[in-house]
Amino acid sequence: MSPSLPSRRGVLGGLGALAVAGGFGLAAAGSGASALTSDAEVRVRYWNLFSGGDGANMIAVLDAFRAANPGIDVKDSTLQWGNPYYTKLAMAASGSRAPDLAVMHLGRIAGFAPGRLLDPFDVELLARYGVHERDFNPALWKRAVIDGELYALPLDIHPQVSFYRKDVCEKAGLIGDGGRLVPITSTDEWFGALKAAKKATGSGLQALGLHANDPNFSWWFFLSFYAQLGGTYFDAGLTDVTFDEDKATEVLEFLRRHVTDGYSTVGAADSEQFVNGSPFVWEGDRSVPVYSGPKLDYGATPLPSVFGRPATQAESHCFVLPHRSDRGGAVNEGAHRLAAYVVLHALEWAKGGHIPAYLPTLTSPAYKKLEPQYEYVSAMDTMALEPQAWFAGSAGTLAARIGPAVASSNLGSAKPAATARRMNGVLERLLVTKNPMEGKAAAEGGSGV
Known about the structure:
alpha+beta, seven-stranded mixed beta sheet
């Protein structure tokens, strides 16, 4: 989840998830704390970074696991999203204080020195609990395998999507057959749609919530449209930068135009405006519960394919086994069983907006009934991913250094071409920067896969 949208989190808080005490606390007094007084044979310590609606949905799945597996108690703890979580997890894994199971973003796996800070899954043990490679998106599974070992078990993908108000878009002539948004395949078509939607929008509301001044969203949207142009960042061996400044400039100019042409208002409360009648907002699928709560007449699609090929930034929550010198036995089996259970029973999780990684759930009649989730399910096959390097992934070093540059271009404080040059320089420096968890740079073979 993006840490920059407190208003959304305030809304999600009403879904029943409890706040994290002191930044590092139990997910819920009635679930994680129960393990402290249990007589169960096995206790599994489990860390995650889910708050708000995600936290409430995860607690529901954990409670179902406890009911189905009375011999295993789960002591679940929710930690602060982003670098605070990853720093604490790395320290725990390197100091023999790691939990038995944890959640990570798949894009962060390479930076966690697999084999040293992470232990591989036992695929035969997972198979015993119903988890098989054939039941997962091949791209996700491939990214979870490093040096022939499975270091992550994908739970979902969570893409950036384009939410749209059906009532407003209907007035603008943008709703086609089946009651969904008409396909958009070029920048001209997209800005034409925004122009029509703006005319159909009430006064004081923007046409598109772009989160233009948010570094995280700025990076995620750039990543999406740069991928649509076929842009790359590094060669396969992570020895050279392949960033295309011309393509990057084209994307930056496209994003900036939303502000200069008056379709997006910098600093606007984008989510609230959408609830109040703004026709479009771009943000993560985790906002589904926010917009479903007021019972809006809305839909959601992958980001528009304005540059000729579909691509939408996406990350993946996954389970990992933080390194433990004593890993094995009944507790390790319990950790595998818990991870497998959540993945295989992810329909409740999907109600929060995320696309399940487990294909039998993805293709089930129950999932196909979820709206607007099933409308953007194609994002599973058009994921725009960050480079597989130690500095990449959600809340990683790459986003922290690139995001502000993109935001500055959105706001007009830097020209797109100059921003593209700056981004190229960031990539060149990161390639030779040593991974603090490994002591080697990506160009030297450090945590690049």
